[in-house]
Input
Amino acid sequence: MEENKSYKSTRYSIDGHHHGLFIKEARLRKGYRLVEVAEEICDTSYLCKIESGALIPPPGLFSKLVEKLEIQFPSEVRTCHIGIFRKALYQGDLSKITSSLKTDTFHHYEIQMLTFFQAVINHELPKAFTLKKMIDQFYHHFDLKEQQIYLLFSGIYFFKSFEWEQGKTYFEKSLELTHQIQEEDPYLYFELAKYYFQMQKGCLGFSYLERATTEFKKIYEKGWVFRCGILWCKESMKNDDVKNIEKRLEELRKIIDPCENSLQWSYFFNILGMIYEKRGQDIQAEEYYTKSIEPRSDEINEEFIIDAIKFHYRRQNSDQMIKLIERLDLKSLSARSRILVDFYYFKITDETSEYFERFLRKDAIPFAMKALDPQNALLYTKELAKYHRNKLCHKKGVDAYYKWEKFCEEWNLTGMI
Output
């Protein structure tokens, strides 16, 4: 069939949100009907949903469509694959990644890149480090969109590795490319917001978070609008902005998935627990912290259980702390969470031992400082000072405080001193 010369091409970006338009434009350019393209590949109604953006096709099916339509834009198709998988990774749909990486629809370096993305999201940092070294060797083969996505995930890798300056460099390079290709990336804005919040630069953090929220609304990503709202609530909690948090939480409630098992309810109840704790209403706070850790899916987010442990620690409720710690899969915890859980366990079981002192001095305090975690650095430092005071070694306790103050000054965290 001759190509339809009268069809005017539409300019758009090829990523996980626009792959349907990519297929539709190629079909119209060729002059094919839906039924002709779908024949021996999928149902016509399924293809219609793909073109409308209602469904994301599996990579194998997508490759068949590309082959049938004789699309000669490998870099755009590759970028579309990368975009689809980035979205799946962010949404935690790792099964789709694992099964599709076993197919032969990707080049070797593309598989390495996608595996790198997967390792970063899964917090498998040694594996991510090895993959990054290999990928860097053929970085110059990437098109601009691939470079932008790769730089973003490299920034996330360094962010999770507590390599703050390198993370910032990669985020900024990724941001430069979004300007160059004239395409907004709300995922990047969300990561930049988290970065600046971590660096105690709240104004920049809220600015990028607002940009992320706006862009997610444009592409109807309600789940990500919700996540942006939850991050806003948590950061605003540091400023005791309870009234505005309640207003924002009421807005978020309207977009929660109506499914009762939605993990979004856990986030919602977690924030409510924090609000009631701020008000000193411990009974209501405990009720909502408990609701936040009720099973609503196959996995419970570790942060909900740890927030509940913190609450019971402040209330000196050791029995509840032990029960909650036993619910955690210690092997799957992030390094930050593991250190904190070990600290609480020592406090409950053996806070007067030399092992506790060694843990604080060699593990907990250095890690908190490396992770730019002043609240926990102060918590661990106070416990170390308390330990030395009880052992009548006041100088060691004072030295610990001086070290913590110097850390705050170096990172401009004077408000914590």
Summary: The chain has a mean pLDDT of 80. DSSP finds 22 helices and no strands in the chain. The two ends are 74 Å apart (CA to CA).
